[in-house]
Design a protein that fits this description.
The chain is an alpha/beta fold. Helix content is 35%, strand content 18%.
Length: 345
């Protein structure tokens, strides 16, 4: 029976039966009104548009999501907009069609409004479009494109699609990239890490590859010295088979407090890492949980990962060759380094 019910009537039924749908409808009604105001601040006659695509708000909570990837995309978008005098294009951050709407990301500092994809019709004179698509959303992009749900892009006389390769482990297969090439005039790939910005990957994907990473440097963080620190170790939330064993070993260190990073805004996270002496990532290794605490005066621990680390990191005392090696050495290394004369982040 459901297949014969008009979609508009289904929406009405859901609003009638489900409180959360009514809450969402009212929330998005307000967001749409504000987005309609914000879009008018942009140049509708711009002949070039640079588009960054992201996921929408969390389905259940309606809140914007926070992750290193999302923060970096918003940062890249913000910096691109600041370079308008160079590229002479209008820069826009949009959610995918059918996603929960976002007016602005609230869990980290930024000045970038978020629009819904249907608003792109506002740019009536657009001739060239550059679309930045996160690597894990490429297949979905192709599906929406072929289903004519991204039809505004087809109006452009020149369409360039760039894959934001923020994690080599999430990149689609070369066959998928070949399908993408059939949809546009040009496909490129930009990377977040130097390790996979190489000729090997250019040949593997048969597409140009360039470094396009966020600006990250110490002055953006609150640095504290050894005597200003708490004996605190922050832990990334990533799952790993050795996680519980290593955390158990760390809990044996007298006076050490362990805090798993979760349910924090980015600004709250930066405040926590400023207090921490130590940081441990179970993730990709060369990630925010490793780099950002160092900028805040902490010592970071990780396992060397050939997908993300360049070879020089293998020389670091706190970058282990394996999790087995970490289990054997990390407690002794913390006890050895927990001295103002040796503590050198």
């Amino acid at each position: 029976m459901r297949q014969f019910i008009p979609s508009s009537f289904k929406i009405i039924l859901r609003l009638f039966y489900y409180k959360e749908e009514r809450v969402r409808f009212l929330r998005e009604f307000v967001i749409r009104k504000r987005q309609n105001i914000n879009i008018k601040k942009l140049d509708s006659q711009s002949k070039k548009v640079i588009l960054f695509l992201i996921e929408g708000a969390d389905f259940n909570t309606g809140k914007d999501r926070i992750s290193g990837g999302i923060i970096s995309i918003v940062s890249l978008c913000e910096t691109t907009a600041e370079m308008k005098a160079i590229h002479n294009a209008q820069t826009v951050l949009c959610t995918f069609p059918q996603e929960r709407l976002i007016e602005k990301h609230e869990q980290f500092a930024n000045n970038t409004p978020v629009f819904r994809f249907s608003q792109l019709s506002y740019f009536t004179a657009c001739e060239e479009v550059l679309v930045h698509v996160p690597e894990y959303l490429v297949l979905r992009f192709i599906k929406l494109f072929t289903e004519h749900k991204l039809s505004w892009l087809k109006r452009a006389s020149y369409l360039h699609i760039n894959i934001l390769n923020q994690s080599i482990k999430l990149m689609p297969e070369p066959e998928v990239i070949s399908r993408l090439k059939n949809l546009c005039d040009k496909v490129t790939i930009t990377t977040a890490h130097q390790q996979y910005c190489t000729a090997h990957f250019r040949n593997f994907y048969e597409a140009p590859v360039h470094k396009f990473s966020v600006w990250i440097s110490p002055e953006k963080y609150l640095f504290k010295t050894y005597d200003q620190k708490d004996n605190l170790m922050i832990i990334s939330p990533d799952a790993h088979p050795q996680r519980e064993v290593i955390l158990s070993l760390l809990s044996s260190i007298q006076g050490l407090t362990i805090q798993v990073i979760k349910d924090l805004t980015y600004e709250q996270y930066k405040l926590v890492i400023s207090k921490a002496k130590w940081a441990l990532t179970f993730g990709e290794g060369l990630d925010g949980y490793f780099i950002e605490p160092v900028f805040s005066g902490a010592i970071s621990f990780a396992v060397f990962n050939t997908d993300f680390f360049t070879s020089d990191f293998s020389e670091f005392d706190t970058v282990y060759s394996s999790f087995e090696g970490m289990k054997e050495k990390i407690v002794d290394d913390i006890l050895r380094l927990d001295n103002e004369n040796y503590y050198t982040p």
